[in-house]
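for the recovery benchmark. tokens below, seq after
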């Protein structure tokens, strides 16, 4: 069976999720389109890289990601680094003829994302942006119902992503709170997942009207670059520095197909852990999904008998998307790791079979255009059309 040598750049918690996916993918989807070989991992220094190789099962390691890209044995470059390094790595990988999967958001803004898209188009390599939540079987099932016409014409989309990991002002100033590294705050970090759902399920967004807020204007500095996502608290009397990204945003949206809706995200919502939801209303029915109950899709169809009409629960399993490769009993439990396994399976299959990848860097660029328009709308306090001329530098 064909093997595919993987070079992964970055070894934090997301690197762990990706490494697990390469190891487990053939176990879930057999015969696998190819066997991923964890060939080389790169991290910030030799010690960290060596530890990552031992911990994540890679054959070799380096502290210089450029050496990985120059290595002719590497087939696929996996980018799981902070946002400010995505473009440089991806462009170099594309020029070297490597296939690329890059964590979201694709870039800090649309202009940067466009340079990445241009590079992969010029080289002809396969490219994916890692919006893995759309690989959740219940989300794919929602897509199936919509494409089959079960909901009829789509009227409305409501999406949220609410978390509380940064609600404590003593959570350190990680790179996610720094515009020069992250590009934006809750918008790029988690809001882009909701934007991806909206585009995937309903269609292209044409116009936005948004508001943003930074609730905690400064945070304690942290030693080291490891991102603990709110699991550590700063000691007393630690120096504080400014937060220059959004903690929360909310936006009205218009779709090209005439549907309307809203998107909101916050990392300051006490009691919300990973509250990623969408509710979609069509002329013939409605859908509701909450990632915290990710085996479930709530459905209601207009042609249900009047005395039985209301939301009912479908528990995803073997009869639903990706069910043939996952667990054999509905509602047995799909986790975050499984969505990553499915993501890697789909990407490797696309490379081997030379088929279309989704979401790819074009999707990442379109989401960046929408994100830039949201920031522009919040600044201008008016509706902003999603198009290249709406791009404004907010640094």
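predicted aa per position
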């Amino acid at each position: 069976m064909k093997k595919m040598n993987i070079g992964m750049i970055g070894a934090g918690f997301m690197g762990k999720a990706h490494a697990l996916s390469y190891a487990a993918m053939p176990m879930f989807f057999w015969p696998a389109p190819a066997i991923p070989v964890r060939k080389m991992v790169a991290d910030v220094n030799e010690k960290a890289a060596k530890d990552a190789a031992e911990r994540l099962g890679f054959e070799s390691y380096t502290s210089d990601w450029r050496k990985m890209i120059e290595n002719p044995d590497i087939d696929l470059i996996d980018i799981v680094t902070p946002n400010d390094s995505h473009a440089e790595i991806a462009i170099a990988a594309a020029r070297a003829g490597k296939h690329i999967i890059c964590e979201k958001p694709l870039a800090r803004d649309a202009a940067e994302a466009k340079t990445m898209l241009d590079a992969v188009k010029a080289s002809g390599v396969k490219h994916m942006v890692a919006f893995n939540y759309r690989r959740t079987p219940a989300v794919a099932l929602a897509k199936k119902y919509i494409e089959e016409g079960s909901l009829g014409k789509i009227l409305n989309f409501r999406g949220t992503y609410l978390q509380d990991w940064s609600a404590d002002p003593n959570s350190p100033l990680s790179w996610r709170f720094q515009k020069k590294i992250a590009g934006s705050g809750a918008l790029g970090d988690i809001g882009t997942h909701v934007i991806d759902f909206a585009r995937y399920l309903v269609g292209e967004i044409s116009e936005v009207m948004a508001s943003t807020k930074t609730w905690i204007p400064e945070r304690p500095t942290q030693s080291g670059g490891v991102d603990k996502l709110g699991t550590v608290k700063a000691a007393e009397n630690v120096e504080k520095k400014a937060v220059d990204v959004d903690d929360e945003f909310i936006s009205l949206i218009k779709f090209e197909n005439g549907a309307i809706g809203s998107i909101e995200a916050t990392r300051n919502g006490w009691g919300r852990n990973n509250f990623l939801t969408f509710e979609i209303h069509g002329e013939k029915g409605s859908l509701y999904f909450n990632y915290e109950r990710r085996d479930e899709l709530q459905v209601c169809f207009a042609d249900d008998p009047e005395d039985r009409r209301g939301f009912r629960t479908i528990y995803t399993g073997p009869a639903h998307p990706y069910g043939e490769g996952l667990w054999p009993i509905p509602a047995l439990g799909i986790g975050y790791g499984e969505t990553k396994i499915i993501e890697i399976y789909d990407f490797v299959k696309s490379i081997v079979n030379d088929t279309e990848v989704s979401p790819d860097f074009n999707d990442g660029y379109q989401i960046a255009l929408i994100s830039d328009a949201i920031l522009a709308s919040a600044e201008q306090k008016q509706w902003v059309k999603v198009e290249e001329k709406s791009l404004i530098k907010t640094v």
